[in-house]
Amino acid sequence: MATVASLLDTDLYKFTMMQAVLHQHPGAVVQYRFKCRTPGIDLARYIDEIDAEIDALCALRFTADELAYVRALRFIKPDFADFLGLFYLDRKYIVLRPSRDVPGEIELEITGPWLHTILFEVPLLAIINEVWFRNTTQPDFGEGVRRLQAKAALLRDVPGYEECRIADYGTRRRYSLHWHGHMLPLLHDALGDQFVGTSNVHFARLYGMTPHGTMAHEYLQAFQALGPRLRDSQVAALESWAHEYRGDLGIALSDVVGLDAFLRDFDMYFCKLFDGVRHDSGDPFVWGDRMLEHFARNRVDPASKILVFSDGLDIDKVKRLHAYFRGRCKLAFGVGTHLTNDLGPTPLNIVIKMVRCNGQPVAKLSDSPGKGMCDDPAYLAYLRQVFGLPADAVA
């Protein structure tokens, strides 16, 4: 069974970023790198199987029905849909090999035009996950259903539950394509309007759900190399987004170079322009308090803005965040691995991050240790200096 169902079997924000790249930076060249953060995982043992799955991924094309679906999304422009009709993922941009330094690990790099490589990340992670789990575990789908039902019951018990809206954000670390497709209708049936959709465009189309997503870290990271100045990279990225979408898809990402630097750049103009912000690292309660204070200082009613939480959420954390911020602002929760990979075996912590753009290093200085990736200490030091961050700000 294939591990990726379609070229739509990815997160919506890959397409929204890709459209902006087509229109504004079609010549940008980038490099992504894979990392497994879970110790003791022997992926090299299954490298041939991963390799074959990548070949199958690169043989996929958008179908006429899929293109019609994409074209009907309100924020997709006709020329981008036409471009997707010609698009395919080209294997020549991928290097996959056993690690030369660490036995059992793999080295996976993607290098090429941003426009032609941006769709690799999510399906490659889904492939590696599924290959690992189907070779090392025996799935207990009955247990997965029981756990899912228990989570739904907890969510229905949340005070003001009808305001506690969650979406599936779990494509990249799912247990398998089969389980992902099986659990989404179950969750929708159990939660009703509490479940607002999925980041996965393929399943959104298949099940008539709303696809969710705006931008990822790579979009803001790329502007560290695209200019004009490094210090202005966040502002340039947000301006670029506003130019592309004219107020639509208005959720900004706040933690590419840390919250302090983001708040300095996210001025009154952006506070009024964007619908809200997304949390993806650091203490979510502290982050939310600071964001709401920032909106108020910039003469924006915090109750009119959306806080989107998406960092390693489980149902208990969703409940606590909802109780803490309820009535102070609009809330949304993107739950990933806790929904799509909770059948018993411990999920892998694997990522693919952009590390270079146009030959220059780029990085994320996270509000949480270990969430970034950069192999250039000199650049990290420079990034910290430019944004006025402490020397121990983590990548």
Automatic annotation (TrEMBL):
Pathway: Cofactor biosynthesis; NAD(+) biosynthesis; nicotinate D-ribonucleotide from nicotinate: step 1/1. Keywords: Glycosyltransferase, Ligase, Phosphoprotein, Pyridine nucleotide biosynthesis, Transferase. GO terms for cellular component: cytosol. One of its GO terms (molecular function) is nicotinate phosphoribosyltransferase activity. GO terms for biological process: NAD+ biosynthetic process via the salvage pathway. It holds the Pfam family NAPRTase. Residues 8-129 form the Nicotinate phosphoribosyltransferase N-terminal domain. Residues 164-390 form the Nicotinate/nicotinamide phosphoribosyltransferase domain. PANTHER family: NICOTINATE PHOSPHORIBOSYLTRANSFERASE (PTHR11098:SF1). This is Nicotinate phosphoribosyltransferase. It comes from Luteimonas chenhongjianii.
